[in-house]
Design goal:
721 residues, GIY-YIG endonuclease, Rossmann fold, seven-stranded parallel β-sheet, 31 strands, binds adenosine-5'-triphosphate, binds zinc ion, PriA, Replication restart protein PriA, zinc, hydrolase, DNA binding
């Protein structure tokens, strides 16, 4: 019999489907099974993609050498998903499957026809006394312990009694003790407000595959997710809630766990490998009803999915780029289509292109226009920092913000101060010639870190000492410029010495524990003023925060991207949304140098519709999505000349192959060097009608170039949304 297999190896050009022969029977093989195959002179791991196929390769098929002992059954729909991703993203079958395979390719995960063997996994069950009596003293000890202490884990029993495992095993085998169902007291769902109730019902009025839940911050979207999830679970189906990593706060996790108890799984980037394996196995084995996960959660190995929720749909981190060769939103849609699972996008600031589709009626639109209990959105005060400067206030805190912090503190309420890290941190520059100190390997301005008294690069993490004089002109006037969170912290501590001030950014919260404790302290009001970056923008729900200060609203406008306005609007809205979520109304002070910018203006008024109306006109006028398809092509590699040459060739080949289409291309531009790698990019705009043909040509040129450059140059093709 012949089988189709993809193999694990480094060279991208070999990532294809190969046909092998086997003497094993149908019953010994399954899709997604790991096999050992001869490949050239090597023996490689392969994965079965199809069984009982014809050998159409024109060569005599080699025989597989065997199967791996530990085996992974992938749900059928995930195998299909891998195939579709491979087509869509021009990646080989193995690369595509690699996203889906369990940690360590499933090594050490054991199944027996879908049932996993308990002894190979950490023991999750707590054991308790069931019936009968033990026969020997060790068994007696176990029973006495369980009677006095209540249910315990197997490992806990062994720890406390200092006995071998066999008496415990015997007791389990004889049914004297057994796993106890953990009855976690699950929180009942909250009673929906009339507005939520309407939205809840609207969802069931039809069976649209895609739904956009568009609700202002604090309108109770999450509560609705949990209601729909519960319906699903009661029907015996499974639920995925996907969030951007930074929105996967302890708060969110707590909320879901409180509702669904131990049949919840959580997946994020900070899990260890063995935790990941355990969660994977629990899901695969049907022990999980609902997963809350960051982007790779979309590959959760659960069968019988009833609902996929994609929260904060507009979040840029869902989009593919170098480390991520897929767009989570697209993959979610593919999975929903394959399995017929309903997909809900949630957002307070939907992506303009998605909202356009919703307004056109391509996807179902459900709105929540007000905050829960009609709590008002925070009032926003716009401060023009140029005026502030002209009245002689050189501080990064405007007089208004200063005043309001004082008032808020005196009322015993909490403050969040937000600083956009990107572009506004404290780089070092020469006041004389303007030179900024850059990272040697990244071509990016380095930041001054007071705690280590050195400069540090935010991309690669390398540090160097502060120069005494400018390396270009020799001037001594080389000083920190701009502000970072550390500086704000220092300033605020000086201005409000009684207040408890904390900082939350990547430097202070690398460890999971610090993140948790900061969050606990904030909740328990042990912090008066919390200072931070993007991390603060999403998902946090502290009822006593009544003032949010945005120190410089403009900085996200400097990104050179057609989405700059959209991202600015979204960020400002999210940050402002952290204020006044409890009973007391909130305020926001928004400091800016561009008070006339429409993203900033509309964000102040909290009016997405206004913003959307202006933005969509711009998109139309300049031929951007959703009106035209925009495709970015980006080449990255270690040798500048080579990368540039390759980009030019790519451009030339592509224009050649697409001569009959009406494409508009940009110039080739150079991106900043990152980690000693050079990047050149160009963009194409295409009519939707031409897209299918363009994709074919792109695939052809892409594969040709990938083969030619033998993996030396990385090629990113991004279909912008
Ligand atoms: N039906 C309800 N009854 C009482 N409180 C509710 C109800 N629904 C939501 N809440 C509370 O209102 C607050 C905001 O709700 P939720 O977090 O669900 O909003 P959200 O729209 O997801 O917010 P955001 O998008 O800003 O993170 C929460 O503290 C939540 O517990
Ligand atoms: Zn660097």
């Amino acid at each position: 019999m012949y089988i189709d297999v993809c193999v694990q190896q480094n060279f991208i050009g070999f990532d294809q489907v190969y046909t092998y022969s086997t003497k094993l029977g149908r019953n010994d093989l399954f899709l997604g099974q790991r096999v050992k195959v001869p490949f050239g002179k090597k023996i490689l791991m392969g994965i079965i993609l199809a069984i009982d196929v014809e050998n159409t390769s024109g060569f005599e098929a080699k025989e597989i050498l065997g199967t791996f002992e530990d085996q992974v059954f992938l749900p059928r729909d995930l195998m299909v998903l891998a195939e579709k991703m491979s087509e869509k993203y021009f990646i080989g079958p193995f690369t595509s499957l690699a996203y889906i395979l369990p940690p360590s390719n499933g090594q050490g995960i054991f199944y027996d026809q879908g049932e996993f063997k308990v002894e190979n996994l950490p023991d999750l069950n707590r054991y308790g006394y069931l019936e009968g009596q033990g026969k020997n003293p060790s068994q007696e000890k176990v029973l006495n312990l369980l009677k006095s202490q209540g249910p315990l884990l197997k490992s806990e029993i062994l720890d406390r009694l200092d006995i071998s495992a066999s008496p415990v095993q015997t007791l389990i085998k004889n049914g004297v003790i057994g796993p106890v169902k953990e009855e976690k007291t699950c929180q009942p769902p909250q009673v929906l407000t009339p507005d939520q109730e309407r939205a809840y019902q609207e969802f069931y009025q039809d069976q649209s595959l895609e739904t956009l839940l568009f609700g202002v911050t604090g309108s109770g979207k999450t509560e609705l997710y949990l209601h729909w999830a519960q319906d699903c679970i009661e029907r015996g189906q499974k639920v995925l809630i996907i969030l951007p990593e930074i929105a996967l706060t302890p708060q969110m996790v707590e909320r879901v766990q409180a509702r669904f108890g131990s049949r919840t799984s959580v997946m994020h980037s900070k899990l260890t490998d063995s935790q990941r394996k355990l969660e994977w196995t629990r899901m695969r084995n049907g022990q999980v009803d609902i997963l809350v996960g960051a982007r790779s959660g979309i590959f959760a190995p659960m069968e019988n999915l009833g609902l996929i929720i994609l929260d904060e749909e507009q979040e840029a981190s869902y989009q593919y780029h170098q480390s991520l060769r897929y767009d989570v939103r697209e993959v979610a849609k593919m999975r929903s289509e394959i399995t017929g699972t309903r997909l809900v996008y949630g957002s307070a600031t939907p992506e303009v292109s998605l909202f356009y589709r919703a307004k056109k009626g391509d996807i179902k639109l459900i709105q929540l226009k007000n905050r829960i209990m009609d709590r008002p959105l925070a009032r926003v005060h716009l401060v023009d920092m140029r005026e502030e400067l002209s009245t002689g206030n050189l501080s990064i805190l405007s007089n208004v913000l200063h005043q309001k912090i004082q008032n808020t503190l005196s009322r015993g309420k909490q403050v969040i101060l937000f600083l956009n890290r990107r572009g506004y941190s404290n780089f070092i520059s020469c006041r004389h010639c303007g030179t900024a100190i850059r990272c040697d390997s990244c071509d990016i301005s380095m930041n001054y870190h007071k705690t280590i008294h050195r400069l540090r690069c935010h991309y690669c993490g390398s540090t160097k000492p502060l120069p005494k004089t400018c390396p270009v002109c020799g001037s001594k006037l080389i000083k920190p410029f701009g502000v970072g969170t550390q500086q704000v912290e220092e300033l605020v501590k000086n201005l409000f010495p009684q207040a408890k001030v904390h900082r939350m950014d990547r430097d202070t919260t690398n460890k999971k524990e610090t993140y948790f404790s900061l969050y606990e302290d904030m909740k328990n009001r042990k912090i008066d003023i919390l200072i931070g970056t993007q991390m603060l923008a999403k998902g946090l729900d502290f009822e006593h925060v009544t003032l949010v200060g945005i120190l410089a609203a403009d900085t996200s406008l400097f990104i050179s991207d057609y989405k700059a306005q959209e991202q600015c609007y979204s960020l400002l809205t999210q940050v402002s949304g952290r204020s006044g979520r409890g009973k007391d109304p909130g305020e926001v002070v928004l400091q800016t140098y561009n008070p006339d910018n429409y993203a900033i203006k509309t964000a102040c008024q909290g009016d997405y519709q206004d913003f959307y109306d202006m933005e969509i006109k711009q998109r139309q006028a300049y031929d951007y999505p959703p009106f035209k398809k925009l495709i970015s092509i980006q080449l990255t590699g270690p040798d500048k000349e080579e990368v540039y040459e390759a980009t030019r060739n790519f451009y030339r080949d592509l224009t050649g192959a697409t001569r009959t289409l009406h494409l508009v291309g940009t110039k080739i531009i150079e991106n900043p060097k990152i980690k000693n790698k050079y990047t050149f990019k160009f963009q194409l705009k295409s009519n939707k009608a031409d897209l299918a043909l363009l994709r074919d040509s792109l695939e052809w040129v892409f594969k040709k170039h990938m083969k030619e450059n033998k993996g030396k140059i990385y090629i990113d093709i991004i279909f912008e949304r």
